[in-house]
Write a structure and sequence with these properties.
CATH class of the largest domain: Alpha Beta
Strand order of the largest sheet: 3-2-1-4-5-13-10
Order of helices and strands: HHEHEHEEHEEEEEHEEEE
Number of helices: 6
CATH architecture of the largest domain: 3-Layer(aba) Sandwich
Number of strands: 13
Distance between the termini: 35 Å
Length: 243
């Protein structure tokens, strides 16, 4: 099993791309509160560097976070010392009785765990259903077809004060797989350290996910954003409530 997000990429993701979690947070908190979950334990899957967990704790929730990346968890432990954090695949995570489960940032798509196919994901949703208290809420977003811009390869570059990243995305519309090849540069002293990672994501259709959730007993619907924060093309959200 590949962990992904080494020290430099974890730093770059937290520093340069944390806006997704921060801009999503107000809408996510509103979904929880309007759904009747105003306190209690939230399981944060793919918790990353703890940006969303920090918002949850500040809003009065308890947090149990899970992530495969040791580098991400080191940042999260400094940011959210109040949270209980575990290293591992979300598919194998212990799910305590809880009031909500969230997975923000395409967590369910990543193929770091090679068994993460739609069938395994549906089985995991069954475990979530059992862990949630009556009225509990599951909120997540998933990458679907078109997330990489369609068939073919595309390149983008991003940079900050002390980092840069060269991103190459390749979407295979036949295998429903998106590959992201990232070459990173992070300043260490006067020099820049170079690294490279390849992340593969299994693309899933939102309609298939919602159908599976409803078969398990959830009341589920599709989201086009978290509140005022709207999703880019190919990304959808889902909110599901245990009856």
């Amino acid at each position: 099993m590949t962990a992904g997000y080494d020290e430099d990429l974890a730093y770059i993701h937290d520093t340069g791309f944390g806006f997704f979690a921060l801009q999503s947070a107000p809408g996510l908190l509103r979904l929880l509160r309007t759904g009747g979950v105003t306190s209690g334990l939230v399981v944060d899957l793919g918790c990353g560097s703890g940006l969303w967990a920090r918002e949850l704790v500040d809003a009065g929730y308890s947090v149990y976070g899970v992530d495969l990346s040791a580098a991400m968890l080191r940042i999260a432990r400094q940011r959210v010392p109040e949270a209980r954090l575990q290293k591992g695949s979300f598919l194998a995570a212990d799910l305590p009785p809880c009031d909500a489960v969230t997975a923000i940032g395409e967590c369910f798509n990543y193929l770091f765990d090679p068994v993460n196919k739609l069938q395994a994901l549906v089985g995991f949703f069954g475990r979530v259903y059992q862990a949630l208290r009556p009225g509990g809420i599951l909120i997540f977003d998933v990458a679907g077809p078109g997330r990489g811009g369609g068939q073919g390869t595309r390149q983008k570059n991003f940079q900050g004060d002390d980092w840069a990243i060269l991103l190459e995305t390749t979407e295979d519309v036949h295998e429903h797989v998106l590959a992201r090849r990232m070459t990173t540069f992070r300043q260490v002293g006067r020099l820049y350290r170079r690294g490279e990672e390849v992340h593969r994501l299994q693309l899933v259709r939102g309609a298939d996910v919602v159908k599976a959730l409803r078969r398990l007993g959830f009341r589920a619907r599709v989201l086009r954003g978290y509140g005022k924060f709207r999703f880019p093309k190919g990304l959808i959200g889902v909110v599901a409530r245990k009856a």
